[in-house]
Amino acid sequence: MDSILVTGNGPLNGQIPIAGAKNACLTLMPATLLSEEPLTLTNAPRLSDIKTMTLLLQSLGAEVSSLQDGQVLAMSSHDLISHTADYEIVRKMRASNLVLGPMLARLGQAVVSLPGGCAIGARPMDLHIEALEALGAEIELKDGYLHAKAPSGLKGAVHEMRFASVGATENMVMAATLANGTTVLKNAAREPEIVDLVECLRKMGAQIEGEGTSTIEIQGVDRLHGATHQVVTDRIELGTYMLAPAICGGEVELLGGRLSLVGAFVEKLNAAGIDVEETDKGLKVARKNGRVTAVDVTTEPFPGFPTDLQAQMMALMCTAEGTSVLEERIFENRFMHAPELMRMGAQIDVHGGTATVTGVEGLKGAPVMATDLRASVSLILAGLAAEGETVVSRVYHLDRGYEHVVRKLEGVGARIERIKSDG
Ligand code: UD1
User: Fold this and answer.
1) How many domains, the chain?
2) Is 0.85 surpassed by the pTM of this model?
3) Which residue lies with its CA nearest to atom 24 of ligand 1?
4) Which of 95, 162, 293, 359 shows the greatest Cβ crowding within 10 Å of its Cβ?
């Protein structure tokens, strides 16, 4: 298994291009299942999760071609051959469950393996099931698979989610586009990736209003047609690289970044003493003098502070002046990076969903292990700021969500290299 060697070497300066959003692309790709006509996505990120979704769609009979070095995905679901999302693919990536709503709407049936838990928490599917049942689907669990059917089609309904789940919102919105009548989804998630999905569905002929608010209204149509859509900027990759100059010093411009994608995160960076400025090309982030100040962070659904930036923010807080309290409210087990950061000299106390971080003047390089996608990049950020060498192992987690991480950080002056393993 490959690892990444990082040697801390002071301020970073330059520009980093930000890719299209992994999480948007992973919900836009299954939208191809809703139509017989082609769907083309531009600005797609080059990631292993995208390859996994490609394999899943191909196993259902969709054609998926990766063009222009993977930045364009040309898809067609004219002839679907299967309605079963197999465990062997679903277990690799929870977002595989996003084929459930579209398949049910287009084919009247879907069999999707339950994803199982993952390192950051149990992550059940009950909210997806409740949403699709509200549309008239009959769903039962057999042999680890959800068997869903809607023999006489889905029917529009009013449904209020108990929690604003991102994935359940996406599944219900996609399913409702082809339902008979009007669907009103209350307490919907408001993430930018959902807005992006709705914009794409609208280009395909769907009638939807209210995306980005907590009530989304969908007027079902008989069929959707083809479209071309540009994937929105990845706000998590953006926030991650904004933390690079914050933790190392220097000034870095994140190309394609926009304040509207990272509002709550930027408020915390500002409070910690980091300057963020919107430019005509993106966002410029600078830490010019001294240590950052400790700030408290609570993760929340959008527009709150994203859980997917909590691990990276913790890396910054490890070097801050003062004590910060990080509260994780979305996932029950998302502090696995804490013991790894402690190997680098960080002072962190974890109690349940709360981590108390007492900033230290400097971190020290150490061998550390990535446990999940965002944890792995937090260790790289910590390594950039640490004295000496940090080796991050199990970087396959990183490949799921960050394209060209070595090239992008080298481009702003970091000393970082990937060490290939023979095994
Ligand atoms: C998406 C993102 C993920 C991000 C998360 C929260 C994708 C591909 N992934 O994941 O990167 O961290 O949003 O911003 O877009 N839950 C239930 N029952 C359900 C569904 C969810 O209890 O049926 C719980 C989960 O276990 C979790 C919380 O709700 O504790 C949030 O999950 P959800 O918003 O659904 O996240 P995902 O769509 O899985």
Assistant:
1) 2
2) yes
3) 123
4) 95
